[in-house]
Amino acid sequence: MLFRLCIVCAWIDRGGPDRNALTYVAADSNMSLYTKHCFAYRNGSIVLRTSTHRVRRAAVAALTATLAAMTAVLTAPAPASAAYSSVAVYASTVNGDAADVYHPVTGSPHDPWPVVLLLQGANVDKAQYSGYAAKVASYGFAVVVPNHFQVLFGQPGLYATGAQAGWTVTWAQAENVRAGSPLLGALDANRLLLLGHSFGGAAALNLATGLCTPPFCAAPAPAPPQLKAVALYGANNTQPGTGTTPPVSNTVPVALVQGSADGIGSPANGYATYQVVTSPPKLYASVLGANHYGITDAQNPAGARPDLSPQTLAQAQSVETAARWSAYWLRAQLGDPVGQAWVYGFGDLVDATVTTEFAH
């Protein structure tokens, strides 16, 4: 005797939930075994994924409840987290730093977009994040990507700092009322979120904990009260040369998105950092086959430290995957039910390139 449930699932492709996707779950009579089938129309083809799982009765019941909840959310006429199909970018200045600002394009009324600051990796130019930033923006964010120059180790270069968070809040407040601003009245300056890559991820982690650890922080810069969550890529809290990973006493939710082939910020150190994040919600998402530059437009950007560990995942796919998980994590921390169901529910079941661990 089988228990059956059919629902619409969120198969993300080309920027949004695909309502041509169908999940079918069958469990045996004692609910100890279930088989999951997911059909989706992707890139002109019907895709079928099948997986069989042996779990406890309570786990299947929880899965059923999650999927049933998603039916109501994803079959709604216009779910809050539906991705935008078009994104624009314009040049701006944040506290003297040249910045690119990515935002959705729509002619329809919308709630003000939360502001996302992307803190760059060491000597990685802002232009290298165009694909990643645009993808994150398509989930309903205004994404600000500055170039911040400072002198470290006796050399001038592109090095992010935690003070940029407060500067970005000030910029958003002004940009939201500036005559001629492409985002006039469209920003929610009371909700700031952080993305951080490598060195910039370490700077973001400093903000999330209230610490100031050189060289990622030149002077104490308290996190602005508008900061709601952070998502890091290729970053960790392991001390170079010692192998020790101090506790991360975070004051906001933290996600670590990690390439499994990262040869600079190792997966072992990334996972060790996740384990010592003290306050949920927290997420560890491993992207299979991505290396340290899985979110940049090209591998080993000029001027940055090269990753000698080759990436096996297509660059466009790693960028899209990391952006999707980062965006859904941020949306989940803002209370979006689709983001929460993706991160805490079935996202890693339908995403073959990602495995996750989380607490919330």
TrEMBL record:
InterPro entries (UniProt xref): AB_hydrolase_fold, Chlorophyllase-like
SUPFAM superfamilies linked to this entry: alpha/beta-Hydrolases (SSF53474)
A Pfam family that the UniProt record links to this protein: Chlorophyllase
PANTHER family recorded: CARBOXYLESTERASE TYPE B DOMAIN-CONTAINING PROTEIN, CHLOROPHYLLASE-2, CHLOROPLASTIC
Protein name listed in UniProt: Chlorophyllase-like protein
